[in-house]
Amino acid sequence: MAIERTFSMIKPDATKRNLTGAITKMLEDAGLRVIASKRVWMSKREAEGFYAVHKERPFFGELVEGMTSGPTVVQVLEGEGAILKNREIMGATNPANADEGTIRKTHALSIGENSVHGSDAPETAAQEIAYWFSETEIVG
Ligand code: ATP
Ligand code: MG
């Protein structure tokens, strides 16, 4: 499998509980390398733009509110099959359905406060990386 880059975000529910290091360790232990990272408190406009694909969903307001309720850590991850590997280590969207050992099973509070985001395909990975990072901020 090819070396890929994917976008990851540690959400406010996790940064508030001081889990940035614990979650990053789980990503690194799974073989992913953090090649860009910064802490941002996103604006409502940034959150709405980032999650625009969900704007018609009933939970959109709650999602934007949660994402702007505290700092997030945005990261670019690199590794063999990084996009799928990150989704596997994240676990299912609803932590009640997530496998043992995944980030969401270990740390998430609910389907809304589920601690991490990860890109779901090569196209969204490229878009999401470009949404948060310039080329010079990514150091592989
Ligand atoms: P993410 O895109 O954050 O990595 P995901 O791809 O597993 O998560 P999506 O279907 O893309 O899940 O939903 C985006 C986010 O919206 C979820 O991570 C969750 O925080 C929130 N969300 C999804 N479904 C619900 C719901 N039914 N109620 C509340 N929040 C939800
Ligand atoms: Mg998603």
UniProtKB/TrEMBL annotation:
One of its GO terms (molecular function) is ATP binding. Keywords: ATP-binding, Cytoplasm, Kinase, Magnesium, Metal-binding, Nucleotide metabolism, Nucleotide-binding, Phosphoprotein, Transferase. PROSITE patterns: NDPK, NDPK_LIKE. It catalyses: a ribonucleoside 5'-diphosphate + ATP = a ribonucleoside 5'-triphosphate + ADP; a 2'-deoxyribonucleoside 5'-diphosphate + ATP = a 2'-deoxyribonucleoside 5'-triphosphate + ADP. SUPFAM superfamilies: Nucleoside diphosphate kinase, NDK. It holds the Pfam family NDK. Residues 3-140 form the Nucleoside diphosphate kinase-like domain. It is found in: Cytoplasm. GO terms for cellular component: cytoplasm. InterPro entries: NDK-like_dom (IPR034907), NDK-like_dom_sf (IPR036850), Nucleoside_diP_kinase (IPR001564), Nucleoside_diP_kinase_AS (IPR023005). The active site is at H117 (pros-phosphohistidine intermediate). Its main location: cytoplasm. It is an enzyme of class 2 (transferase). Its cofactor is Mg(2+). The keyword Nucleotide-binding applies. Gene3D superfamilies: Nucleoside diphosphate kinase-like domain (3.30.70.141). The keyword Transferase applies. One of its GO terms (biological process) is GTP biosynthetic process. ATP binds at K11, F59, R87, T93, R104, N114. Its EC number is 2.7.4.6. Major role in the synthesis of nucleoside triphosphates other than ATP. The ATP gamma phosphate is transferred to the NDP beta phosphate via a ping-pong mechanism, using a phosphorylated active-site intermediate. Homotetramer. This is Nucleoside diphosphate kinase. The gene is ndk.
